[in-house]
Amino acid sequence: MKRTATAIWKGTGKEGTGTLTTQSKVLNNTPYDYKSRFENGTYTNPEELIAAAHAGCFNMKLSFVLGEAGFTPESLETVAEVTLENGTITHSKLVLKAKVPGISKEKFQQCAEDAKANCPISKSLTAKIDLEATLL
To answer: What confidence tens digit (pLDDT) does each residue in 56-115 have?
Structure first.
């Protein structure tokens, strides 16, 4: 399976602007720029998109891991915080809040760690990945 996204950039790194379009068109000429990446701009940026991808991938992988263990999650809510330092993504922190009926805390933690280690986005990152998993 292959997926595509197109980035278009015009101008200098600091004063220029760009757009991002995904194959699905969920992002369709979505703007990004220097301010959105390194200051407090209002557009998206690559690190935000990596955070979204990591949170979504982790939740889906955890759902599969829980299913294989005989559990169906009622809800999985994950916030991913990606850190960019000196031009490198150095860290992704996953904060999970989950409702999984009938699972023990120990089994839940085991499943969450499995998903953290084995979701495709985690596997693609060289950054440190931390997980804070709470069973509600």
So the answer is: 999 999 999 999 999 999 999 999 999 999 999 999 999 999 999 999 999 999 999 999
DSSP, collapsed to helix, strand or coil, labels residue 123 as: helix
Domains of the chain plus CATH, in order, are 5-38 (no CATH), 46-135 (3.30.300.20)
Give me the mean pLDDT over the 15-37 stretch: 97
**What long-range pairs does 130-134 form, CB within 8 A, spacing at least 24?**
130/91, 130/92, 130/93, 130/94, 131/93, 131/94, 131/96, 132/93, 132/94, 132/95, 132/96, 133/94, 133/96, 133/98, 133/108, 133/109, 134/96, 134/97, 134/98
Give yes or no for a contact between 29 and 9, defined as CB atoms under 8 angstroms apart.
no
| Helix 105-118 and helix 46-68, axial crossing angle in degrees, nearest 10 | 130
